[in-house]
Automatic annotation (TrEMBL):
<dbReference type="InterPro" id="IPR000845">
    <property type="entry name" value="Nucleoside_phosphorylase_d"/>
</dbReference>
<dbReference type="Pfam" id="PF01048">
    <property type="entry name" value="PNP_UDP_1"/>
</dbReference>
<protein>
    <recommendedName>
        <fullName>Uridine phosphorylase</fullName>
        <ecNumber>2.4.2.3</ecNumber>
    </recommendedName>
</protein>
<dbReference type="InterPro" id="IPR035994">
    <property type="entry name" value="Nucleoside_phosphorylase_sf"/>
</dbReference>
<feature type="domain" description="Nucleoside phosphorylase">
    <location>
        <begin position="18"/>
        <end position="209"/>
    </location>
</feature>
Length: 253
């Protein structure tokens, strides 16, 4: 007999709204859910906290996936098993280009698959690309909300900071931002036939630049707990939900 809940994230196997926003932080899931009508926490197991509710009449799911792609990919797979077909990751990231300010949004066109898990699932040459309609929906939502935003290729990397091994191969390749889970979502989405994309609030520069030479295993001066980031999160939450609505209404372009 099929169990009612999924094995790892313990999410409902049926009945979740098929349009979803996923975030790393369980507290951010609550922040996004607070914008919904009739928001309800429907499950919370490990780092996977799930809410449902309604955004301007569209039923949505909001779920957290924790830090790191190996754990996140388990949620993405279980969301796909539960019938979710459209997923936007609303995360935080370090900027990798001059001119991108703290609290700005970065809309991902694709991601470098340095995530530490998808290489174990399929060959590394397979691309991690966002659905074009998700990119356009996020861009339109950001533009209409008047939020500063940038577009480009994101570096998804398993290690938050490089410690003793320099990992600077992508520094001069024009990447826009660095984070830890997006490529795992994009690859899962391609394999499972989902529409997926990502929008990230900039919370500083690439953590590589903050590594303390004397203490290379610490996160250095990384500080995502600032007012400018919190304001970016508030704006990004609206942009994510609005982009889902545009996608549902076929108005992404
Ligand atoms: O804020 P979230 O969505 O967790 O995203 C970023 O923040 C975490 C690192 O602090 C990593 O999960 C990274 O991807
Ligand atoms: O994953 C992350 C998030 C913010 N800043 C970084 O450098 N990396």
């Amino acid at each position: 007999m099929t169990q009612e809940l999924s094995p790892i994230a313990r999410i409902r196997r049926t009945g979740l709204p098929p349009y979803a926003v996923v975030v790393g932080d369980p507290a951010r899931a609550a922040t996004v859910a607070a914008l919904l009508e009739g928001a309800e926490e429907v499950s919370y197991h490990r780092e996977y906290r799930v809410f449902t509710g309604s955004w301007k009449g569209l039923p949505v799911t909001v779920a957290s996936h924790g830090v790191g792609a190996p754990g996140a990919v388990l949620l993405f797979q279980e969301l796909a098993d539960a019938g979710i077909h459209t997923v936007l990751r609303f995360g935080t990231a370090g900027a990798m280009r001059p001119g991108i300010g703290d609290g700005d949004l970065v809309i991902a066109e694709a991601a470098v698959r340095d995530d530490g898990v998808t290489q174990q699932l399929l060959p590394p040459e397979y691309p991690a690309v966002a659905a074009p309609e998700a990119v356009f929906a996020l861009q339109r939502a950001a533009r209409e909300a008047g939020v500063p935003h940038h577009r480009g290729i994101v570096w998804t990397r398993a290690a938050f900071q490089p410690a003793l091994i320099p990992l600077d191969a992508y520094d001069r390749a024009g990447l826009v931002a660095i984070e830890m889970e997006l490529s795992a979502l994009l690859v899962t989405a391609s394999l499972r036939g989902l529409v997926a994309g990502g929008v990230l609030v900039v919370d500083g520069v690439n953590a590589d630049e903050l590594v303390d030479e004397a203490s290379p295993f610490s996160a250095g001066a990384y500080d995502p707990h600032r007012e400018v980031v919190a304001r970016g999160v508030e704006r990004g939450a609206v942009v994510s939900l609005e982009a889902l609505r545009l996608l549902a209404e076929g108005q992404a372009g």
